[in-house]
Amino acid sequence: MLLRNIPVLVIPSGVRLVTCGHSHTLISMKDGRIYGWGYNSYGQAANEKSTYAWYPSPVDWCVGEVRRLAAGGGHSAVLTDASSLKELCEFKLAETVNRSNARLIEDVASRTGADALARLCEKLR
Q1: pLDDT value for 16
Q2: Tell me, what DSSP letter sits at residue 19?
Q3: Where does the record place its RCC repeats (predicted)?
Q4: pLDDT at position 87, please?
Q5: Residue 115: is it exposed, middle or buried by C-beta count within 10 angstroms (0-12/13-18/19+)?
């Protein structure tokens, strides 16, 4: 009998949103919790573990109901119902984005290669 590893899609019950960056993943649950795992050297897996998070770890900094998730090479972004956008990037910065400043932040994000952030700002405008 020959045994082989066969990839299987496994989505736990209660998952609402999923996003994948270059080497990390974030999920948003229906109950509002967010989990992140994967390569984490810049904090992009949204946890305070070592450079690699092997298992989903809860994210406790997000406030409000999650509307969108986005991830890129070394960053992740969460858009909440309060129109606040939190980006975890190389500089571990958090910015609040609203309709009045979305265009300016989108411009900066585009010039600095934070394309996931730029896409979220574009959707907010």
Answers
A1: 93
A2: E
A3: 32-82
A4: 46
A5: middle
